[in-house]
Design a protein that fits this description.
single chain; alpha+beta; three-stranded antiparallel beta sheet; globular
Length: about 120
């Protein structure tokens, strides 16, 4: 994961990466690209199905930089039902339900650190 992050992030775009480690090789990752105010989140396959994704997502959202972005978006493929459930349970609010994707934004109370 570390190698992928270093090779995949564009150095010209300020990004925020939040990693919660569950073990040497498993954990939760949230990427926040400040230039476009988009975020993505992933949970290691070995940790799925235990309810940890929503807890880690909520915690990661409270630690995003306070950079005054007006809108922060998370796009999730429509068929990714697990990620859609995690987004809702983790503090993201649905703002668009399209044919092939759903679009969420964080609840403002979470971004302010109110859980």
């Amino acid at each position: 994961m570390r190698a992928w992050l270093w090779s995949g992030l564009d150095a010209r775009i300020r990004s925020f990466a939040w990693w919660a480690s569950a073990s040497e090789s498993e954990g939760f990752l949230l990427l926040y690209h400040q230039s476009v105010a988009q975020l993505g989140f992933w949970l290691s396959p070995g940790l799925r199905g235990r309810g940890w994704g929503k807890v880690a997502l909520r915690r990661a959202l409270t630690q995003l930089p306070n950079d005054a972005n007006t809108v922060v978006l998370a796009e999730i493929a429509k068929e990714n039902t697990v990620a859609n459930r995690t987004a809702r349970a983790g503090g993201l609010r649905l703002i668009a339900d399209q044919a092939h994707r759903t679009i969420f934004t964080p609840e403002r109370s979470i971004l302010r650190g109110e859980t």
